[in-house]
Amino acid sequence: MSEADEPRSVLVTGGNRGIGRAIAEAFVANGDRVAVTTRSGGAPDGALDVRCDITDAAQVDAAFAQIEEAHGPVEVLVANAGITADTLLLRMSDDDWSSVLDTNLTGSFRLAKRASKGMLRLRRGRIVFISSVVGLTGSAGQVNYAASKSGLVGMARSIARELGSRSITANVVAPGFIETDMTGVLTDEQKAAILAQVPLGRYGAVDEIAETVLWLTGPGAAYVTGAVIPVDGGLGMGH
Q1: Out of 27, 64, 145, 177, which one is annotated catalytic?
Q2: Beta pairing, strands 168-175 & 125-130
Q3: Quick one: average pLDDT of 38-57?
Q4: Superfamily of domain 9-177+206-220
């Protein structure tokens, strides 16, 4: 369970599918009070289903008010919601750039800022940003996505320095290629090329990301902050 063996108020954004859903389900199984924000609904069983577009500051504020009323101040924030708009640099429109940055990076900023208010009053908290190996290694056709995911690292480390004295940690989990709907659309040739680069020779499972997040927000990681934890089968090798 948690540091005081009490259920915590946990928020997971984008928790209706893939990695986010697995993370939310892991916290529910851990006995925590879990809220999930999505744009279209579909939270896992046992979680509070909150509609929220994280690109809208007013919706973010309203979502936190709803969660605080139901579960108390958010003690654990997992900023997972993200989108892609992949295309080569010369074809990338301003909208392709701004939509991805506004959701993945600015949306995460809005969440962290709002969550930190309650955490500062509690004098404790855990913030985890879900980045990507692409944010560290780069990826052709993903200039916007890679920039947004790389930006989370600088943001987390700055927050770690600002809020550390109040027992608030900020960390990043950087998944590699994980078996989800997003990787399901790849061709067999693309999958083979990817797996050839992964030392462990397989895709990761969403549960492996969830277990890492659970550890990072639990008592065993109380002295871990400003860290980037790769869960990528060795693909990034620390980069």
Answers
A1: 145
A2: parallel
A3: 94
A4: NAD(P)-binding Rossmann-like Domain (3.40.50.720)
What stretches of 94-185 adopt beta strand conformation (E)?
125-130, 168-175
Q: What count of Cα atoms within 13 Å lies in the side-chain half-sphere of residue 196? A: 6
**Separation of alpha carbons 115 and 109, rounded Å:** 10
Instruction: Report pTM.
Output: 0.95
Average pLDDT over residues 13-32: 96
Strands 48-51 and 76-79: unpaired
Q: Which two tokens stand for residue 176?
A: 């590699």
Percent of the chain topping pLDDT 70: 97
48-85 b/e (C-beta count within 10 Å ≥ 16 → b): bebebbbbeeebbeebbebbbeebebbbbbbbbbbebb
203 counts as catalytic: no
Tell me what the pLDDT averaged over the chain comes to.
Answer: 94
CA 139/CA 235 separation, integer angstroms: 13
- Residue identified by tokens 């928020």 is 11
What average pLDDT does range 199-220 have in this prediction? 97
